[in-house]
Design brief:
9 helices; single chain; TPR-like_helical_dom_sf; mainly alpha
């Protein structure tokens, strides 16, 4: 899902992780924090079952608040959420077009449109995993109109999956800002949750911050800052 040096089929090579059977197992009532987190990212990566994203996110946040997670899990989740905001390396990702990740594309000043692919024959999986929309030939007769974010540096249309990636990342940040310290054991000293570095990372580029600023939980951040910084 995140790689320093990606290759042409890097995303496709991990799709078995989100097979129909595996995703069904992770959606069970007794699913753990890690299982629900992987389930959510499977929805974002494959664009399958996005209608179930909101209730699944609520379940995940509730379980995360009750059970917590280990330090390495928090770090892993922060890195993976950043990968989701980068849309797992898709060529036409929003932050690259805005110039917030890598070199700004020449077409970044032009609002882009998101297309749905033509109907194709059924695949072995029960549902087709739509991972490489950017590489598909667009069907202009089936253009999908998406909401426009017009108060950033550019007028950029955000896909539903990208907005859900923001919601996942920021909801976790809000939870951590309200409970910023954690203990590795009852006898250890309290330390700041490493997920807090997520905000530092995404705010390094002005273009990225301009897109995400409306979603950042500023009230939680204002309460957190005087007490912990």
């Amino acid at each position: 899902m995140t790689a320093l040096h990606s290759f042409a089929t890097s995303r496709e090579s991990i799709l078995p992780i989100w097979s129909t059977t595996a995703q069904s197992r992770r959606s069970q009532p007794d699913a753990t924090v890690s299982e629900l987190f992987v389930l959510l990212h499977g929805m974002l990566l494959t664009n399958i079952d996005l209608d179930d994203f909101a209730p699944t996110l609520s379940r995940f946040l509730e379980r995360l608040e009750i059970e917590g997670a280990e330090e390495r899990q928090w770090i892993m989740m922060a890195v993976t959420n950043i990968g989701a905001l980068l849309e797992y390396g898709r060529p036409g990702r929003v932050l690259r077009r805005a110039g917030g990740a890598g070199t700004r594309d020449a077409t970044s000043i032009i609002p882009f449109r998101v297309f749905r692919k033509r109907n194709v024959p059924a695949q072995p999986e029960e549902k087709r995993m739509d991972v490489d929309d950017d590489a598909a030939k667009p069907d202009t007769s089936q253009t999908q109109t998406l909401p426009v974010l017009s108060d950033g540096p550019l007028s950029i249309k955000l896909s539903q999956a990208f907005k859900y990636a923001i919601q996942l990342s920021v909801s976790m940040l809000s939870l951590v800002l309200r409970n910023p310290t954690r203990k590795s054991s009852p006898f250890a000293e309290s330390t700041l949750n490493p997920y807090l570095t997520f905000l530092t990372t995404v705010s390094k580029h002005a273009e990225t911050l301009a897109i995400l600023e409306r979603f950042i939980p500023w009230e939680d951040l204002a309460v957190f800052s005087p007490r912990h910084l």
